Amino acid sequence: MSTVSPEATPGSPETPSVERTYAAYSRPFWQRVVLSREFAVIALLVAAIVFSRSQVEYFDGPQTMYYLFRDSASVLLLALPMTAIIITGEIDLSVASIVGLTSVSFGMLHDDVGLSATIAALLAIGVGVVCGAFNGFLIAYVGLPSIAVTIGTLALFRGIGAGLLGTESRTDFPEGWTDWAKDRIVEGQPYPMVLIPFVVLAIAFALLIHFSSFGRGIFEIGQNDEAAHFTGVDVARTKAILFVLSGAVAGFVGIYLTLVSGVARAENATGLELSVIAAVLLGGVSIFGGRGALHGVLAGVLLIGVIQRAMLLNGQTINVINIVIGVLLVLSVMSTSLLAASRRVLAASRGARSSGGPSRSAGKRLLS
Amino acid sequence: MSAATPSRDGSSLGAAVGALLKSREVAVAVVLVLLIAATTLKSDAFLFSSTGWRDLLLTPSMLVLLAVGQTAVIITRNVDLSVGSTLGLTAYLTGRLFIDTSLPIILVVLAAVLMGAVLGLVNGVLVAWGRVPALVITLGTMYIYRGAFLTWAGSDRINAGDMPRAFRDLGTDSILGIPVLTIVAVVVLAAVGYYLHTARGGREFYAIGSDPDAAHLYGLRISRRIMAAFVLSGALAGLAGAVSAARFGTVSSSVGTGIEFEAVGAAVIGGVAIFGGSGTVWGAALGAFLLVTINRSLPVLGISDFWQQAVVGALIVGAITLDRVLVRRQEKKLVAARDDAGSSHAGPPTREPVVATTAPGSPGASAPGDTSSPTDPQEGTR
Amino acid sequence: MKIHNRRLAGLAAVALAASMALTACGSDSDGGEGASGDGGGTYTFIPKNLGNPYFDTSNAGGEKAIGEFGGEYEQVGPATGDDPAGQVTYINTATQQGRSALIVSANDPDALCDAIGEAMDADIPVVTYDADTNPDCRDIFVSQADAAGIAQAQVDLIADQIGDSGEIAFLSAAANATNQNEWIDLMTAEFEANHPDITVVDTVYGDDDDQKSFDATAALLQTHPDLAGIISPTTVGIAAAARYLSTSDAKGEVKLTGLGTPNQMREYVEDGTVDAFALWNPADLGYLAAYTANALATGEIEGEGDSFTAGDLGDYTVGADNVVLLGDPFVFDADNIGDFDF
């Protein structure tokens, strides 16, 4: 069992009770919150911000946080459904291509077909939903491996966008809309408008993943989908829904990116899927599925954003930044393995002591 | 484990068409031939001019090398997303060595292969001993290698004049009408194909990919084999880097970007199961050949080359869907055969035990889906 | 991929990960600490992409000019030539850093406008060079030569090489590249008006990427077996096309001209693949752009009609649409190419 069961997330009023023998409750509440992978990422994020503010010139300037949020918004949004998908043990490599395709759809529906921006936006999100449903159908109902399907649709969706628009672009969007994408919620504060829909979606996804029976199904599927099936989780439907959600959010991001850059192009967001996945994994979601939490992921996205901004301001090129992100990603996943290995050694040397030990020890306690 | 040992498909009613469809290699080859025929009908220069003939064979050589390496990795139930960055790094190394040293061509190429192998070894060590999924590790090293390449190269680029004429001629020369680079790719393909098909180590790749736990219980040295697969993939990416430098005569900062997905796509189209244990390098090489040829044919056929990516994507999705349909059919047949045989036949491959060993936490594991890799009947016939 | 569920890392993970990230951050900040000076001011060049020899040459000219008037030179940019989003990031960053001026070659006429607008709101002058944005986005565009002159030079070259009749095609950079499209339109019009026997059969795009341009040339020859000539008004494209032609059957049969740099093209002019091609001096372009930015930053010029002195190049006047014009293009051929090294 995962330690970050839905009940273990902060904000849960549950207190440890003596009778409980589950691993998740073998430690006090504060320990479960603080000694988690997610908290480590959050601590890192805070450390990175504090460090950058004191050491990096211009980082404490008024624009930094605004650009940080504006540039990270797409990854933040896409990370929401991606988290759920990776927790089920699947993956969606096609999100950035859906973003590109919806950007093209939005631009062409508005500029070429002449629909109003509102209808074009709705239809573009519809395109995203259809793309997601296509993925979901093949993965959940035909039973194809998601990595293969979405590598295919990565090329397919991007290719349709490129086929429709070539390397042309569409730039004629209503002022009000493009302004909205760049406006701040409160003038003078570093919070761009896009944070409003993001926060709404983030809360919705947090409820969905961590505080609903559907969400518990997501974790169960990730741990063992056969077992999940036998406990009454509709595995196929759950997966299909998640991919549709991923498509819908990607559609929204496609419109947002189009408006914020003012240009609808087929190349929009090329390669973004890797940033999203890197951030989700950095945020503590297990690629094997079954483990992860949304607050860690969001901290992971912002951590990458802060490092990027700080290094840009420091005059580093994107190349060096990519090296740092790559190293961070490898080390963060390795750290789990290294710790597990060192814990095995420790556990072997001092027997099965229960404090914070792996679930195996909890099992032993249960037996004794 | 039965999948790891070749066994003939016993079905006697397999008509010629059925057998043809079941052999992915043949199916891809047929599509390829049809495509070339159609394109040649439209413009006979596509095949019958000496440049057309040369390009037809030459252009896929780079992707064939990558697809062969990728296949070895995928068969062990891993994936290597870092090959594009490795290719870029080694292509730059090739040019750099020609500028800074006066090493003979063969040593420079060997250095590129060696560097690729070292980069592959890093992946292999992290994956095999770090016990971390290859997808994550190679995603990380993809960023790292690309960043290292761009930082090293700076705004430098290798121009045609920086490399000796003899080396660049390798990129276009032919022996008996076959381009040199194509010969290189075919030799590598044959060597790796032979190894995977017959050698003990090669069969262990399949065993590991079919069922890692069973392979472990059986006493196979999993870490070593997985590392070997990554070293092979890296070394071939290194060779592809040298090939790219020879063929294009320049090394720019974007060389190799995105080619990792093409390599995986080529393998998948060629019938290599993404969860390991099944598929051949022949299929992957044909898949690579097909992908590249589609790119070159579409403009001749009058389809805007902007659509080529969509066609490639549709092909990948179509290929894996076809696989699934065929496997389902095969499963039904096997079940029917078992039922006919009655109780005398003890342990036919039923679904449940297989699922139990593969399902926990395997990315993308889905109840009916995962039976395909361990019991995939296709692998045996190849 | 071993299949196991892994336990969460505890406090040790916090410590390990924190030390990791801090070392990562710490090591990178050492180098950049003193990057932004206080005195002369930093002039930031943002080319279409880094690792492009054309921009290396032009920005070296810019660096020389900045050295002359005592500023600091900086060059940042995306890795690929079709990435306006990457350019936006660098423009935003430079705005935050309060650079003295930005000198940009635009990857897209529209996509950069907001970012440039934010820079100009922060009193940072923005000069475009090589490729312009929409004229109302930026302060001044330093043009390498007026479009008509560039188009005319290339039309004359190809018409001369193919005997004024036959099929020709364009190998362009990105389909969005403002300058490419303008030149191609002008050239097409010129062919229609004054060269009735020359037909333009195709325009293909290599995205200023060697490999793409190389493959696009191959495809072009396949698609149009009767092709007589190719015009590639981009330095990356013409070099890739020349490389392809030099080893193909079409060498010498299909004529190639366009805009290229002597160092990239020397080999192909000498082996007969290419007869002649045109270009302005990119180093002068960067040099002029830097002086223009300096004149704006010091308030010496504001817009149309104002004059300034650009170091060794002499006096220039800002023309209509706030454009500063470098001069006419220069034709390189086998006789003179040995005299140039850029």
How would you sum up this structure, described in words?
The complex is a heterotrimer of chains A (368), B (382) and C (342). Chain A has 368 residues and is an all-alpha fold. Helix content of chain A is 69%, strand content 0%. In chain A, α3 (62-87) runs antiparallel to α11 (235-261) and α3 runs antiparallel to α13 (294-313). The longest helix of chain A has 33 residues, at 318-350. Chain A is globular. Chain B is mostly helical. With 342 residues, chain C is α/β, with parallel strands linked by helices. Chain C folds into 2 domains: 42-144 and 282-327, Rossmann fold; 147-279, Rossmann fold (3-Layer(aba) Sandwich), CATH 3.40.50.2300. Chain C contains 10 helices and 14 strands. In chain C, the strands form 4 sheets. A 6-stranded parallel β-sheet of chain C has the order 2-1-3-4-5-13, sandwiched between helices. Chain C has a 4-stranded parallel β-sheet with strand order 7-6-8-9. Chain C has a two-stranded antiparallel sheet with strand order 10-14. In chain C, α4 (113-121) links the parallel β3 (101-104) and β4 (126-129). Chain C is elongated. In chain C, 62% of the residues are buried. The model of chain C is unreliable at 1-39 (pLDDT under 50). The interface between A and B is large, with 65 and 57 residues.
What is the end-to-end distance of chain B? Answer: 16 Å
Note the beta-strand portion of chain B: under 5%
DSSP strand count of chain A: 0
Q: What is the residue-averaged pLDDT of chain A?
A: 82
Q: Residue ranges of chain B: pLDDT <50 for 5 or more in a row?
A: 1-11, 345-382
Number of helical elements of chain B: 19
Rg result of chain A = 22 Å
> Overall 3D geometry of chain A?
globular
List the total number of helices of chain A: 15
CATH class of chain B: Mainly Alpha
Multimeric state:
heterotrimer
Strand order of the largest sheet of chain B: 1-2
Taken from the alpha-carbon principal axes, the silhouette of chain B is: globular
Percent in helix of chain A: 55-70%
Structural class of chain A: mainly alpha
Whole-number tally of structural domains of chain B: 1
Main beta-sheet annotation of chain A: none
